[in-house]
Write a structure and sequence with these properties.
181 residues
């Protein structure tokens, strides 16, 4: 009888140990699945897309946006790129940026954010997002940049005027381009 009771106890502990191991493994797999799902969910939120766009928003993006709007306001002796880097970025207060939802225009199906400079707080551009066709492994759709609209007021950006005096037979150039009289 004692032998039978000892075998029963041993079998009970073996089965209990196997059951606990299966539950722990299933729990670990479930937690990993939940972690992956929450990571995908966070990635597909509009705020995450706005953050990624804001982090990639820099001199090149500003040059492109400003170039579209103000290419006619830059002289033939300077490029949009140099004007943005030497004049506009210092005027807006640096080259690091923040984003905020535009409550007046934001909808769940068409998110809109305002990009502003971190240092000066000047509003720079509105970004409009659209849902991507691609989906994650859980079927969630991320957001991507649909368009960007420059809202930066450049009317008070400091401009420079130079007067150059040179002898009549001298050749004068500005940024490598010959200056005519």
């Amino acid at each position: 009888m004692k032998e039978n009771n000892a075998k029963s106890k041993k079998r009970f502990w073996t089965i209990l140990g196997a059951y606990v191991a299966v539950v722990l493994i299933a729990g670990a797999i479930g937690l990993r699945f939940f972690y992956d799902y929450t990571a995908d969910y966070e990635y597909t939120r509009p705020d995450s897309a706005a953050e990624r766009i804001c982090e990639s928003f820099g001199d090149d993006t500003l040059t492109e946006l400003i170039g579209k709007e103000f290419s006619d306001k830059v002289s033939e002796y300077e490029s949009i790129d140099s004007a943005v880097k030497r004049v506009i970025i210092p005027a807006i207060g640096g080259s690091s940026f923040n984003y905020n939802k535009l409550a007046t225009e934001y909808t769940a199906s068409a998110p809109v954010y305002m990009i502003s400079s971190s240092d000066g707080g000047r509003e720079i551009a509105k970004i409009y997002l659209e849902q991507s066709e691609d989906s994650t492994r859980f079927g969630l759709h991320a957001w991507k940049l649909k368009s960007a609209e420059l809202v930066l007021d450049l009317s008070n950006v400091k401009t420079f005027t130079f007067t150059v005096s040179a002898p009549e037979n001298a050749s004068v150039s500005v940024n490598g381009k010959p200056l005519s009289s």
